Amino acid sequence: MVFSHYTQDCQIVGFLGGFAPALFFAVSGVVLTFQLQKKRMLEILFYYLMLFILGFSYNSIIEFSYYDVIDPISIFSKSEILHVISLSCIVLALGLSRVSWLFPVPFAIHYFLDLPAIGFLTGLVFPIVPWLSLFMFGIFLWKLKVHQKVFMGGIALISLLSVFLLTGVNLNKMDMSLDYFILCLLVVTASSIAIGHWKALSSNGLIQFFGQNSLLFLYVHFLIGSIIVSTFGIPHNILIWLLTFAATYALMKALIRIPQANKSWLFWALLLAATLAVPFFAMSSIPAYLVGIIFALNYRNISRLNLESLRRKLPYLST
User: Which residues neighbour 62 within 8 Å (Cβ) at sequence distance 6 or greater?
Assistant: First the structure.
């Protein structure tokens, strides 16, 4: 995801980074299938509802980073990366994960119907339509055997080449084009095959670290990148971005040593209040980063809070 922030002066790396959301969303779909096997529906829905609300801390960071005038309405109306994850996982948990083979449908709705921008459904940045398709595809692909994945990759490759020949190269990510969607399927499939084939890759400590701390990485890499850009301007040397990646890793290693907050309702109530207050009262992005990083360091405790406290308060929901 570091590479996804490249400018046109680094087109190749920026191009590769543009597919980070596709991989992230596909993996999130698979993670949900494990959660459905281990957790009760109430716990899952509560977890992703909290993720949805706390995700506005990331919106605040984006707003402070790119705009001189902060608009709270804009912050609370854009579907950013954490919102599409939470909403998609809620929809999948409620039953859509059972029909993951219908993964083309959300994209088809986006592609064939001229829908107006409606907030988190079909609005700007990462609306659930069409991005839900990649969550569903991740689940669909996870159920396939290796030879079936290879076959799926072959279909995607042939389809992509056909689209290129017929309509030319478009590759529009923000208003998802057909060739970008098919290329996402190809990238996700190839990555799944590679990780499954090379066991050393799937067990690599660095990959596991970033996988287990992906939410913290989301906030920290943006913080490091923002500091570098504000200090030196946008770097056009790939070595600078590799150093950014290294600095992100070092800061993450330091942050995870901080003791986690307790699992009380008060802690999460205060964090939710801070998330909602930042767009109205903060004068810089620092409070937004602080809230986001605290959230990323403790979000796993949401499930523990739900298990230990919510059942005691609402015992009839556990039956």
Answer: 78, 80
Q: CA quadruple 169, 20, 119, 286: dihedral positive or negative?
A: negative
C-alpha distance from residue 120 to each of 68, 125, 181, 240, 274 (Å)? 24, 9, 19, 35, 22
Q: Report d(CA 132, CA 152) in Å as an integer.
A: 19
Dist. CA 162–CA 38, nearest whole Å? 42
In angstroms, the CA 57 to CA 289 distance is 7
- Determine which helix (DSSP H) or strand (DSSP E) holds 73, and give its type and residue range: helix 72-75
Closest alpha carbon to 5 in 228, 185, 184, 170: 228
Is the pLDDT assigned to residue 118 strictly greater than 80? Answer: no
Angstrom distance (rounded) from CA 276 to CA 251: 26
Q: Is 191 exposed, middle or buried (0-12, 13-18, 19+ CB in 10 A)?
A: middle
Q: How far apart are the C-alpha atoms of 74 and 63, rounded to whole Å? A: 8
Rg of the Cα atoms in the chain: 20
User: 313 CB contacts (<8 Å, ≥6 apart)?
Assistant: none
**Residue 33 Cα to chain centre, angstroms:** 16
Query: How many residues appear in the chain?
Result: 319
Q: Is the torsion defined by CA of 234, 241, 250, 292 positive or negative? A: positive
Q: Which residues contact 316 (CB under 8 A, 6 or more apart)?
A: none
Asked if pLDDT for residue 319 goes beyond 50, the answer is: no
Amino acid making up residue 281: F
Greatest Cα-to-Cα distance within the chain, rounded to the nearest angstrom: 61
- Tens digit of each residue's pLDDT (9 = 90 or more) over 275-302: 999 999 888 888 999 999 998 998 877 7
For residue 169, count other CB atoms closer than 10 A to its CB.
11
